[in-house]
Every structure is written in C-alpha cells, then in structure tokens.
TrEMBL record:
Gene Ontology biological process: ribosome biogenesis
Lineage, broadest ranks: Bacteria, Pseudomonadati, Pseudomonadota, Betaproteobacteria, Burkholderiales
The keyword Kinase appears for this protein: no
Pfam family, one: YceD
Chain residue ranges for the region called Disordered: 156-197
Protein family per UniProt: Belongs to the DUF177 domain family.
Source species of the chain: Pandoraea terrigena
The organism's place on the tree of life at top rank: Bacteria
The protein's name in its UniProt record: Large ribosomal RNA subunit accumulation protein YceD
Keywords carried by this UniProt record: Ribosome biogenesis
UniProt xrefs under InterPro entries: YceD, YceD_bac
Amino acid sequence: MNEYIVDLFEFARTGRVAEGDVQLAALPRMVTEVPAEVSASGRAQGEFHWRAEGVEKPVLRADGKPAVAQFLTLSVEGPMWLECQRCLTPYQESLDSETTFEIVRDEAAAEARPLDDDEFEALVGSKHFDLRELIEEELLLALPIVPKHEVCPSVHESLATGDDGLTEPAPAPEEEDKPSPFAALAALKRSPDKDGK
Ligand SMILES: [Zn+2]
C-alpha cells in the first residue's frame, strides 16, 4: 500500500490535507544530485517535510464564465547536500518551496486553458496520483541554479597554492538571478502521468 497515491480530484473536492516526511533515499532523482563524496561517505541521509492541501472553489474564467476549479497547494522543505560551485566542497542547502496548481482533467484541458488563466500552473490530475513524484519535482525545481555557500569556509586548495604563480582571476559576474531554461522546461514537462516511466 502506497500512502502517496491519492485520488487527486477527490482530494481537492473534499478539501483534504496531508503531510509527512519523505526520505531522500526514496527520491531517486534527488539522490543523483547529491555530490559523490557525500554519497560515498554515507552522509547522504536526510528527509524532507511536505504538506499538500486540496481545495475546490468557484472561479471566474478569463472569458467571464463562472466555473468550479480544483487546486492543490504543495509545500516542501528540508536540507539537501550540494556541491558549492565556488569552492567545490559539499554543503547543505535549505530547500523550501510552495506551489499552487490548478488541477485539470487531462492534457487537452491543460492546453485549452485561456492564457490569462496562467496564474496557476496546470497539473493533470488522476485517480491514482503519485504525490511523491510531485514532491520530488518540486524539490528538484527548488534546487539552486548555481549552488554555493553564502560565504565559502576556505578557498579551494588549487587556488590557494596558485602553483602557476598567477593571481586569482576576477570572479565571474553573479548569475544566480537568471531564470534557468531547464527549470522552465521542467515546469512545462510536468505531467505526472506520463513522466517517462
Ligand atoms: Zn563554497
């Protein structure tokens, strides 16, 4: 029995709330993001807290027509091992995100949504919806595009010794505010029922 499988339509219609903790080890795509030296040392345990809340409510469509729509708000949080791109050492980053989706019947309904309705991302529902997959998607999207310490504990050895005698090059311009094309793509591809399994 899998506690993560829910009837998403019923979940929203009855305003259910569910929450729990999921082990990092149960999220294969997150596991691959853990730096190799952390995995090898056995320190890569961890868990993430998640909370899902369904709601059904009347909405006014862009064309002025009233409708009843279903929503799912999913929040995820927890510490994640990543490799700092500045000093190349592993560190723990706190992930924290909350997203509200509008639940739709199928892909066609997702595509048929008026453009003005894009306030919430469409999520294709199912009677056997796997919350864990969505939790993992959200955690993956919450990963920083350029992981790095706020302040690195020490300069990386190869830079510190500077065996070629040159001075350290100027740091690259900050790029962390740029939206990632991969994150955007992942958001577009998000449809749990056909996630290439
Ligand atoms: Zn660092």
